[in-house]
Amino acid sequence: MSRSTSDWTAKAVLEHLGELGTEQNRQGMARFGIDASKAFGVPLSVLRPFSKDLGKSPDLARDLWASGFHEARLLAILITPPKAMTAELTQRWLDDIQSWDLCDQLTNVHARRTDSGALVPVLVTNEREFIKRAGFALIAWRAVHAKKAPDQEFLDCFTFIRAASTDDRNFVWKAVHWSLRQIGKRSADLHGPALRLGEELTRTGDRTARKIGRETVKELSSPKVWERLGLS
What angle in degrees, to the nearest 10, is found between the helix axes of 100-110 and 87-94? Predict the structure, then answer.
C-alpha cells in the first residue's frame, strides 16, 4: 500500500494490519507468552519499517492505542517520540498492558528521556506483574540509553533488585535479571558491584534469587563482556 504519511488514519492502519497478519504469526505470539486475543499476527520485523513510513505522530499514536489491537499499540509506541512519552502517558498506557513486548517497547522509548529515572521507584514497587516488569525494564534501558547518568543511580537500583529477586513470576524475575546484567555491562566501574550482587544472590535461600544470581554471574564473567569493558 503506497500513500503519503498524511494519508494514514487509524482506520487505514488497522485495515493494513489486517492484510499483513497471519494466523500462523498469531499462534507464534501465543507461544512466546504474548496475549494474542486481540492481535492480527504481524511480527515486529514488519511493524518497525511500517512505523517509519507512518512517521512520528503522537495524535495517530493516541488513536491507534485506543483501538486496543496489539500491533496497533506497538505501532503507537514506535511512532511516539520520547519528548511526547511523558511519565503520565507511560503510566496510562502501562495500565492497559498485558504483554511483555508492549511493556519492553514502551519503556525503551520512555528511557530515552533524561527525566525517565524518576519513574523507576514508582514502577518497581508496584505489585502488578507488567508494571513491576516495566520498572526493571526501564532500569535496563536506562543502563543503555542514559549515557550521562551517574553510576550512583544504578548502584541505588541494587536495593530494588534485591527486594524483587524473590519474585518468581516469569515476567518479573526475567526483567530483574535483565536489569542487573545491563548495569554490569554498562561500564567497568559498575561491572564489579553488579557481579558481586549476582554472587550474593547465588548464596541466598531463595530459588528465584539464586537463579538470577547464577545467570548474572555467568554473563558478567564471560570473556566477551570483560573484553568489551577493557577488564583484565
Answer: 180
